């Protein structure tokens, strides 16, 4: 029949018969998709075309979602299958073959996406495996090390990083996890043992340092400067060898130990400064005596010079010790005066041997007597604990013994 008749309509994809039956054409032939009795055939055809357009729009949306990657391949395949079923039995008029073709393209796209995702999953799994193996290796290194300060924090960080990595093949994932967990357990056990031992050592150090502090505080008022200073040095060596006590207590004990030590050495330095000032004053006295002795030269009256020098020598001895750096110079100049006076006396001995010998013998006797007296005084000072006075006597004894050697030589010359 003519498709332009008033009671029927037709186009490229379908037609409506006189009885209102609507047909759709496809590559497989023609099939009925519905009835439109007693109605306008053109309206019937338009109605079923709109159904087609709805199917085409649904496929378009599905294409967009698939291309955008918003659907997992499995979900996309299920959606294509559902839409294909709808297209296959669609009560619609239009190019159904093109819809099937578009769905075929979608299936190929989904297959490609599935393959890409498979490759990406494989890469991610490979990266995750490499990442977990790296974490395991570092955890095992930490477990065998001794980084107790930072190791625990690093272990926690490694665990957080492990949790962020995806699971890999189950048996491999489980094996790596067992190694990782074992490393963490080993590190934790060794760390606890280390700190337990450290606490024990610190407790032992506490006992030792408390004892050292007690002794340091007992010595603080000692005036035996040399021996006590040496003992403080011994205590300091023992302190360093003792190791650390618990931190807060260690600081407290050190503050007490240092306070005692500083107080003692402060007192010693003050005492030394006082002694040094006294030695300087003694040196000034001897300097004045030296000028007085040197004024005896040249000798005019030997007896008067000897008497004067003897008095100067007694005051010299009484003046006490002087700073070490000045002692040699002062003693040397004093000895020159003595030798000058003795030289004149020696000359007179040559001219008058008996008298000179008698005077030499008298000098030797006086020096021996003086040394004996000083020796007695030295011993008495030591017994009384007066080390300062004992040192002064010792210095005087040493000087007189030097003079005695020279006097004895002179007497020996007369005897010869």
Note down, in words, how this protein is organized:
With 416 residues, the chain is mainly alpha-helical. It folds into four domains: 9-119; 121-196, no CATH class; 199-271, no CATH class; 296-415, no CATH class. The protein is 79% helix and 4% strand. The protein has a four-stranded antiparallel beta sheet with strand order 1-2-3-4, with helices on one face. It is rod-shaped and about 185 Å long. The N and C termini lie far apart (181 Å). Mean pLDDT is 88; it is low at 1-7.
Average pLDDT reading: 88
Question: Using DSSP, what is the number of strands?
Answer: 4
Uncertain stretches: 1-7
How many distinct domains? 4
Tell me the helix content.
over 70%
Per DSSP, the total helix count is: 11
Intertermini distance = 181 Å
Widest beta sheet: strand line-up:
1-2-3-4
Strand content is: under 5%
User: What is the succession of H and E elements?
Assistant: EEEEHHHHHHHHHHH
Helix/strand-derived category reads mainly alpha
Task: Calculate Rg over CA atoms.
Answer: 60 Å
Instruction: Give the overall shape, derived from the CA principal axes.
Output: rod-shaped
Q: Sheet bearing the most strands, described?
A: 4 strands, antiparallel
Can I get a quick summary?
The protein is mainly alpha-helical. The protein has helices at 41-68, 73-88, 96-144, 151-164, 170-218, 225-242, 247-294, 302-319, 324-351, 353-384, 387-415, and strands at residues 9-10, 14-16, 21-26, 29-35. The chain is rod-shaped, with a radius of gyration of 60 Å.
């Amino acid at each position: 029949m003519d498709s332009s008749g008033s009671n029927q309509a037709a186009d490229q994809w379908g037609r409506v018969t006189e009885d209102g039956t609507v047909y759709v054409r496809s590559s497989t032939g023609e099939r009925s998709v519905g009835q439109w009795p007693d109605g306008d055939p053109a309206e019937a055809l338009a109605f079923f075309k709109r159904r087609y357009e709805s199917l085409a729009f649904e496929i378009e949306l599905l294409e967009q979602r698939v291309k955008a990657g918003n659907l997992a391949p499995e979900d996309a395949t299920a959606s294509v299958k559902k839409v294909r079923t709808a297209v296959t039995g669609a009560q619609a008029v239009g190019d159904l073959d093109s819809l099937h073709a578009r769905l075929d393209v979608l299936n190929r796209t989904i297959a490609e996406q599935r393959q890409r995702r498979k490759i990406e999953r494989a890469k991610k799994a490979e990266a995750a495996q490499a990442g977990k193996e790296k974490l395991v290796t570092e955890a095992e290194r930490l477990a065998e090390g001794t980084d107790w300060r930072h190791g625990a924090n690093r272990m926690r960080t490694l665990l957080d990083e492990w949790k962020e990595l995806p699971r890999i093949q189950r048996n491999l994932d489980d094996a790596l996890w067992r190694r990782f967990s074992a490393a963490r357990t080993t590190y934790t056990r060794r760390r606890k043992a280390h700190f337990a031992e450290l606490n024990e050592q610190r407790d032992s150090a506490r006992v030792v340092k408390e004892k050292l502090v007690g002794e340091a505080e007992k010595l603080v008022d000692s005036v035996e400067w040399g021996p006590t200073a040496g003992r403080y040095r011994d205590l300091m060596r023992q302190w360093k060898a003792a190791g650390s006590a618990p931190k807060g207590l260690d600081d407290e004990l050190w503050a007490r130990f240092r306070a005692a030590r500083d107080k003692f050495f402060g007192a010693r330095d003050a005492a030394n400064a006082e002694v040094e000032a006294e030695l300087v004053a003694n040196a000034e006295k001897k300097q004045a005596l030296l000028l007085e002795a040197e004024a005896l030269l040249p000798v005019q009256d030997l007896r008067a010079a000897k008497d004067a020098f003897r008095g100067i020598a007694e005051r010299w001895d009484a003046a006490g010790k002087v700073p070490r750096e000045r002692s040699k110079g002062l003693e040397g100049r004093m000895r020159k005066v003595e030798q000058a006076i003795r030289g004149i006396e020696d000359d007179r001995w040559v001219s008058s041997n008996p008298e000179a010998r008698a005077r030499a013998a008298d000098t030797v006797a006086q020096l021996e007597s003086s040394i004996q007296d000083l020796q007695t005084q030295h011993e008495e000072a030591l017994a009384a604990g007066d080390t300062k006075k004992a040192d002064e006597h010792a210095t005087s004894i040493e000087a007189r013994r030097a003079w005695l050697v020279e006097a004895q030589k002179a007497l020996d010359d007369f005897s010869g």
